[in-house]
């Protein structure tokens, strides 16, 4: 086995650092990172074979983010999960793939991201097992301050966490955290941002996931300010990724400079048809969203493999060549 180290930087509101024991194949480097703390983790030797990725469209037709990744050895990773109404669809996929989630990663607490997780955790008859949940949530008061009309989901999520066994939730990850599951490596590239404008979206954690020789960058709903800070914090090598999840559903997220550094070959658009076309009912371009601008950026970067929820659920094998390359 290989031993790796990482420099840990404190996220806002974190307490003292500690090392968590390995559990069910999941090794996490820290519970609460402090500046200058170096913590070791164990990485399993990678095996040949392809992983799989699903990006699920919402049953409501709305924008959402629900991504499931399966390692070559069958370990399951979920990112966010979508609306409350999407809980049954997501649960069904997880059950079909073995019924156990080894790591559930949360970018930020908005209903179109964590509503399904809340519903699953509150369902006493749920048929799936969740081994670990990783996140960095602020206090409910902070969400009420920056987003008074949409803060309730953070309270619901934190309350749902109390129903889980102690140690299931690690609510203190940040830049430098590494999670190794099987032959999948997950790195957190930023600390939870604290912004007054577009605060909840800009609090999104960014995950870089390596599986089957490919790198996947998860941006959540990171917006302009968070994207600028990400560029300042990360090296070009850290940002460069084969696959990127388009920030904030492809509109009003990070800017063109960030995507130029990421330089993806495949873009995952958690974007239904109406948002893809910026169509509020009056035809392409009739809406107030910025999707068409973002699409033009990706065209300028030469991206040919765009996979969008406008075409329904996305399913792809990782480690396989892009179909349009």
Q: Output the radius of gyration.
A: 18 Å
CATH C-level label: Alpha Beta
- Proportion in β-strands: 15-25%
CATH topology: Metallo-beta-lactamase, Chain A
Please tally the β strands and state the result: 19
Q: Based on the structure given, which CATH architecture is correct?
A: 4-Layer Sandwich
Distance between the termini: 35 Å
Written as H for each helix and E for each strand, in order along the chain, the element string is: EEEEEEHEEHEEHHEEEHEEHHEHEHHEE
DSSP helix fraction: 10-25%
**Which homologous superfamily in CATH is the superfamily?**
Ribonuclease Z/Hydroxyacylglutathione hydrolase-like
Name the poorly predicted regions: 1-48
Question: What is the overall number of helices?
Answer: 10
Broad structural category: alpha/beta
- Major sheet description: 8 strands, mixed
In what order do the strands lie side by side in the largest sheet? 2-12-13-14-15-16-17-18
Count of the domains: 1
